[in-house]
């Protein structure tokens, strides 16, 4: 059975995410304790993934002959302990992120 984690939103409210249970642990709790509260916000959890996407974009933009378009597509997996991580496969991710940049042409 998968677990649930509550990530607070910086603007108020929260988002509940289904996460994989930590191996070797078992949940024995009351029904109202089934959702684990995370330490950081949803936005903070995504910060590392956002930084990784920005670094990848910088790498492609710095090519001698850069592409006209750059598109990154990856799965993001959320964990209560580590926040957001890039999933080893897109199918494993809680959600898929697709980012696209188009080179602006000069006037």
From TrEMBL:
<dbReference type="Pfam" id="PF19493">
    <property type="entry name" value="Trypco1"/>
</dbReference>
<protein>
    <recommendedName>
        <fullName>Trypsin-co-occurring domain-containing protein</fullName>
    </recommendedName>
</protein>
<dbReference type="InterPro" id="IPR045794">
    <property type="entry name" value="Trypco1"/>
</dbReference>
<feature type="domain" description="Trypsin-co-occurring">
    <location>
        <begin position="7"/>
        <end position="102"/>
    </location>
</feature>
């Amino acid at each position: 059975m998968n677990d649930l984690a509550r990530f607070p939103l910086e603007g108020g409210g929260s988002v509940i995410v289904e996460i994989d249970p930590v191996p070797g642990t078992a949940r024995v709790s009351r029904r109202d304790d089934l959702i684990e509260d995370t330490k950081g916000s949803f936005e903070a959890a995504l910060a590392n993934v956002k930084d990784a996407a920005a670094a990848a974009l910088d790498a492609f933009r710095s090519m001698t002959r850069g592409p006209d378009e750059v598109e990154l597509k990856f799965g993001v997996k959320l964990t209560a302990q580590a926040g957001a991580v890039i999933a080893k496969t897109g199918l494993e991710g809680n959600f898929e992120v697709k980012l696209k940049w188009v080179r602006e042409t000069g006037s």
